[in-house]
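Hi V.,

Quick status before I head out on leave. The structure for the redesign project is tokenized and pasted below; the design run finished overnight.
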């Protein structure tokens, strides 16, 4: 299954979004990258994890984080800014943010080999996080692993 479709399906499961957002907001992780690692595990796909981590670091710094910051900054009402216009603009940014996540996931998928069994989910998530230069609390990563299982 293609990564984007797989990610949409698993993200809709109970507890997956919450676990992903905890890793993003409290541990500085990139949600599409975590989902890519989980997809790799589910399909046993090899990949150049270092190259993927480098791509995600740059993407997060230059694209993902700035878009998210703008979207969050305009969430509350602003004096002298029409609420409907502000919300329309915020929704447009959410759409662009989602399109960006799809581009990132397609790029990560292109770094992945062919399906060949399965890998251990937690170990594959941990490998991806460590390739980025750090590791969140194991409990937060385990929560995502459990939600995806």
């Amino acid at each position: 299954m293609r990564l984007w479709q797989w990610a949409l399906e698993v993200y809709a499961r109970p507890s997956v979004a919450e676990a992903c957002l905890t890793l993003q907001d409290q541990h500085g992780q990139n949600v599409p990258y975590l989902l890519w690692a989980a997809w790799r595990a589910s399909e046993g796909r090899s990949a150049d994890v270092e190259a993927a981590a480098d791509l995600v670091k740059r993407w997060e710094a230059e694209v993902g984080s700035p878009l998210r910051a703008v979207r969050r900054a305009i969430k509350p009402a602003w004096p002298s800014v029409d609420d409907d216009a502000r919300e329309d603009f915020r929704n447009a940014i959410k759409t662009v943010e989602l399109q960006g996540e799809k581009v990132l996931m397609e790029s990560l998928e292109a770094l992945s080999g062919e399906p060949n069994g399965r890998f251990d989910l937690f170990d594959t998530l941990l490998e991806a996080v460590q390739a980025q230069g750090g590791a969140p609390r194991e409990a937060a990563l385990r929560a995502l692993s459990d939600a995806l299982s």
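Above is the designed sequence. The two ends are 17 Å apart (CA to CA).

G. will cover questions while I'm gone.

Best,
W.
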